[in-house]
Amino acid sequence: MELIKYDAACRALAEAKSVDEVKDFRDKAKAIEAYAKQARNKDMQADAMEITLRAERRLGELLADAPKATGGQYGGKQPLDGTRNAPSNAPQTLADMGIDKKLSSRSQKIAKIEPAQFEAIIDSARGKITSPSIKAVHVSHNSGENEWYTPPEIIEKARRVLGCIETDPASSVIANEAIKAKWFYTADDNGLEQVWRGGVWMNPPYSQPLVSEFCRAFLEKYNASEFTGGLVLVNNATETNWLQPLLIECSAVCFIKGRLKFIDASGEPSGAPLQGQCILYFGNNIHVFIKEFSTIGIVMRGIQ
């Protein structure tokens, strides 16, 4: 069966019972996705991307149900005959299955996503591939597309400024794989109604009215000392009534040079949006913020 036969691939994947079989699907889909991207065959690329995500979800389900190897080379069981051969019933390790820890973690997190939300992620990711114009309006036209993830290099800079990221109030299971917040809230949790603690990282939904609501909540909670400090990544829309209050009260702000390449649900760069971004800092480690973020844009101290 050829993987590019989309319907047949989906059926076979749903019926797959072994980790090896699903991983083979996933690896072939990734290869086809890379080929289709180079060949500029957007339909094939979208189909392969979807098969990749569905394979990773199925892989996560199988890994979650698989017996765990617990300690030792042979899952805690030593050979009885003095040889180096593992018992035939010893649980397989990730290395035995040819799966690295990153793929294992990612797959099991994807498997935990509610079915409706997962299908929405699939639809969103397909749209960004097959309809570039839809992808581009993420920033400038408030399309309502919220499944865009922060580039890892920005997250690491934020982590060094904050010490650690304790709360992400506008997140998802996939996003938190990189952010690693102690407390993170998805759309189902409604982060606006939750308690924010410690160092806060916020890349809010860019659609209205959510961007305004999250920015207002950030200021209210910060001024009430609900959390100790934070960073906000938003459009550099200086004319808006939601960014103006942030600019007035922030400790410092970085206007990023160029445009960020956000990450899509499959972990791939999704292209640069039409509008630039800025990162606003609230807290006392201004010198660390300047050191970290002056390498990617112009940093200005707040007016407070």
Write the layout of secondary structure elements.
Layout: H1 6-15, H2 19-39, H3 42-65, H4 94-97, H5 101-111, H6 115-130, H7 132-140, H8 152-162, E1 167-168, H9 173-179, E2 183-184, E3 199-202, H10 210-223, E4 229-235, H11 243-249, E5 252-256, E6 277-282, H12 286-293, E7 297-301
Parallel strand pairs: 1-2, 3-4
Antiparallel strand pairs: 4-6, 5-6, 5-7
Helix pairs in contact: 1-3, 2-3, 3-5, 3-6, 6-7, 8-12, 10-11
Q: Which labels suit this protein?
A:
single chain; alpha/beta; Rossmann fold; two-stranded parallel sheet; 304 residues; 2 domains; elongated; 12 helices; five-stranded mixed beta sheet
Architecture overview:
The protein has 304 residues and is α/β, with parallel strands linked by helices. The chain has 2 domains: 6-112, no CATH class; 132-301, 3-Layer(aba) Sandwich (Rossmann fold), CATH 3.40.50. Helix content is 47%, strand content 10%. The protein contains 12 helices and 7 strands. α10 links the parallel β3 (199-202) and β4. The radius of gyration is 22 Å and the shape is elongated. The N and C termini lie far apart (65 Å).
